[in-house]
Design goal:
This protein is of the alpha/beta class. It contains 18 helices and 23 strands. The chain has an eight-stranded mixed β-sheet with strand order 7-6-5-2-4-3-15-8. It has a seven-stranded mixed β-sheet with strand order 10-9-11-12-14-13-21, with helices on both faces. Helix 16 links the parallel strand 19 and strand 20.
């Protein structure tokens, strides 16, 4: 059965077993600096050793509308935001109605409008920036100063952050200090002290880009498409990667295949609509045995859907992304840090098996931020054997027991062919050769599955007879409640090949789609029905909402 998400005014707090878990929301219009402000709050808290998570919600608008950053910080590792806010920053009067049922604490608002909802502190933000002749986006500096005081953080910590973030930070520091001093007579609601070494803050897309680079990426091609666009922005700033925006998604993947044929590790990233345009080229990569990494960052679909909201609706499409049968490696990271290691792993696997590999992520993971001790794991480029010099036409598609042939690059004479071909790459319709070559390619699936089984096709957390299975960014909210409610948690990482452990008890699959796409596949693997908790409104689960669904409150 399906337990559909339904809004409820009676969602309960989680039972907290740690000392600090606090949630702040900043909301306003596009152009108010909401997203940047949320990131700066996370960096401020992470500099004191706290674990932070930032959920960004925004509409597809340049100005106006509704934007929100929800910043959660804790003294334990977290991978999700919370439903309720302990402190709410309101930059436009009309956004209050969208959040009022979630506010359980203090409200800070611009005094240019009235706010009669509960315990409020009006701040003359607009007046301050007019005095300094600054644009409205500078209100977020004032907000940072106010928050710094109310959380009991020394102003010097914020000043240091501004100087680190901006070449010219004097205006930000001045306005932040005005906000800090304006509320200096108010007793801090928390005493947030340094609890450990500073942590770094990355989005999922930051981690994906860095993972590509660690695995030897040389060429990156992308036509911008939310929520994958910031990977292009990140890589365009790097000296060791050639990042190009061509005229279309088709051009992007064809350029990537050309680079890979020439011996350069290449990748592309897009969302569902762009991926649809790439499918014929993915089939070409499979036939020509050209390695390529494709990142598919899901958003609410079909068609344009809700372009800036999250979903897990493309699983069936991406598992079988193009015409014909061919080996494919598909994986989905569960945290920002996992996105780093898994991206590198997939790029290495694509080259090892000379086949397409797809990283399936989603808007929630791609554009949310987490604090991390550092992306300094043992991720590296795994070298493959390359024939440096060969005489005559290279036997590029030599038949082997594993299906993996030797590889060489120009200026050697190497043929790549989208038609069925012989071992040298010459087109053929000979039935015996076609049978042999098709089987050769498909034999890679056996080697790939054996390889994945030695890695981490899934992660297991907690003990318990009953089990929750999930994938992608939904993991964060599930992890918060699974231990409290006594569930074992299995987070699937590799989706093709899909390797599922033996499970004897009750099974609940949690995912952000209507049909239960992973649940269908789990049922096939376990040969029995499983329960489903689904959500498809473009928003991710929070721990409180999921707890309610699991308990049937």
């Amino acid at each position: 059965y399906r337990m559909q998400f339904q809004k409820s005014a009676k969602i309960n707090y989680l039972k907290l077993t740690h000392n600090m878990d606090f949630c702040i929301a900043i909301s306003g219009a596009a152009g108010d600096g909401v997203r940047r402000g949320g990131l700066l709050v996370a960096k401020l808290l992470s500099s004191l050793g706290y674990n932070t998570f930032v959920y960004q919600e925004y509409q597809s608008l340049i100005r106006g509308g509704h934007n929100a950053s929800v910043i959660r910080f804790s003294d334990r590792k977290i991978h999700s935001h919370r439903y309720y806010y302990d402190l709410f920053v309101c930059l436009e009067d009309y956004v209050l109605d969208l959040h009022k049922d979630r506010i359980k604490g203090l409200i800070i608002h611009d005094s240019k409008f009235e706010c009669s909802n509960g315990n409020t502190i009006p701040i003359p933000m607009t007046e301050f920036i007019k005095e300094e002749h600054k644009p409205i986006i500078y209100r977020n500096a004032i907000v940072l100063g106010v928050l710094c005081r109310l959380l009991g953080i020394r102003f010097e910590v914020l000043e240091e952050l501004f100087r680190k973030e901006y070449d010219d930070a004097e205006s930000d520091i001045l306005l932040a200090e005005e906000g800090y001093d304006y509320v200096k007579e108010i007793e801090p609601i928390l005493k947030v002290e340094k609890i450990g070494d500073a942590k770094e803050v990355y989005s999922g897309n930051d981690a994906i880009a860095i993972g590509m680079m660690r695995a030897g990426l040389r060429n990156y091609y992308a036509y911008p498409m939310t929520p994958a666009s910031s990977i292009l922005h990140f890589l365009a700033k790097q000296e060791d990667v050639i990042a190009v925006q061509p005229e279309s998604e088709i051009a992007a993947i064809m350029m990537a295949l050309g680079s890979a044929f020439a011996g350069k590790r290449a990748a592309v990233a897009t969302s569902g609509g762009g991926f649809a345009l790439m499918t014929e080229s993915i089939s070409l990569a499979a036939m020509a045995e050209i390695p390529v990494l494709v990142v598919e960052a899901q958003r609410s679909s079909p068609s344009t859907g809700m372009a800036t909201y999250t979903a897990q609706q493309d699983l069936d499409f991406v598992i079988h992304p193009a015409h014909g049968e061919f080996p494919l490696i598909l994986a989905s990271p569960i945290t920002v840090e996992d996105a780093f290691s898994m991206t590198a792993e997939l790029l290495n696997l694509a080259w090892k098996y000379q086949t397409p590999a797809i990283l399936l992520t989603d808007k929630h993971l791609s554009e949310s931020y987490e604090s991390i001790d550092g992306l300094n794991g043992s991720v590296t480029e795994e070298k493959i054997e390359v024939v440096e010099r060969c005489e005559g036409i290279f036997k590029r598609y030599e038949v082997t027991n594993t299906g993996i042939s030797k590889i060489a690059f120009p200026p050697n004479i190497v043929k790549a062919n989208s038609n069925e071909h012989d071992e040298f790459g010459f087109t053929t319709d000979n039935p015996q050769i076609a049978t042999e070559m098709y089987a050769k390619r498909m034999r890679k699936e056996v080697a790939i599955k054996e390889d994945i089984q030695k890695r981490e096709p899934y992660k297991v957390f907690n003990h318990g007879k009953d089990c929750i299975i999930t994938w992608g960014s939904t993991f964060g909210a599930v992890k918060d409640v699974a231990e409290e409610l006594g569930y074992k948690l299995i987070a699937m990482r590799y989706l093709r090949p899909l390797i599922v452990p033996e499970i004897k008890g009750r099974v609940i699959v949690v995912e952000c789609n209507y049909s239960g796409l992973l649940a269908n596949k789990i049922e096939n693997k376990l040969s029995r029905e499983v329960e489903r908790i689904n959500r498809w409104d473009g928003r991710p689960f929070t721990p409180e909402e999921l707890r309610e669904r699991l308990r049937g409150d």
